[in-house]
Design a protein that fits this description.
With 107 residues, the protein is an alpha/beta fold. Helix content is 34%, strand content 19%. The protein has a single domain, classed as HprK N-terminal domain-like (Udp-n-acetylmuramoylalanyl-d-glutamate--2,6- Diaminopimelate Ligase, Chain: A, domain 1, 3-Layer(aba) Sandwich), CATH 3.40.1390. It has a 5-stranded mixed beta sheet, with helices on both faces. Strand 3, helix 2 and strand 4 form a beta-alpha-beta unit. Helix 1 packs parallel to helix 2. The longest helix is centred in the C-terminal third of the chain and has 11 residues. The radius of gyration is 12 Å and the shape is globular. The N and C termini lie close together (7 Å).
């Protein structure tokens, strides 16, 4: 499925510079060094982290998008950086678990 399709399932787009990017898996984690070493290219990354470093980690890990669980949002400077680096970012009101269960059924 594409990241753009997430908007049909309760995921709110914060920025979506690459809407056609395919989601091929899911990775859940908040420890950035673990995400860099373990997330796979194409994964939707579920986290509650919202600082500027998530953009760099998503870029290094080549994730399809970042999904901020529990309604977490981003400051405008982080959004601008994500857009500039073609990193798709979404917010989800439920927990990481709820998002993962939903994505599991969709993938």
């Amino acid at each position: 499925m594409t990241v753009e399709a997430l908007t049909e399932y309760g995921f709110e787009a914060i920025c979506m510079p690459d809407p056609d990017r395919e989601i091929t898996g899911v990775y859940i984690g908040d420890l950035l060094s673990w995400v860099m070493g373990r997330a796979k290219s194409g994964d939707a990354w579920l986290t509650i982290m919202s600082n500027i470093n998530i953009v760099a980690v998503a870029s290094l890990a080549d994730t399809s998008c970042i999904i901020l669980a529990e309604g977490v949002t981003l400051e405008s400077d982080v959004i601008k950086t994500a857009e500039a680096k073609d990193i798709n970012v979404f917010s989800f009101s439920g927990s990481c678990y709820d998002a993962a269960v939903l994505l599991s059924g969709l993938l």
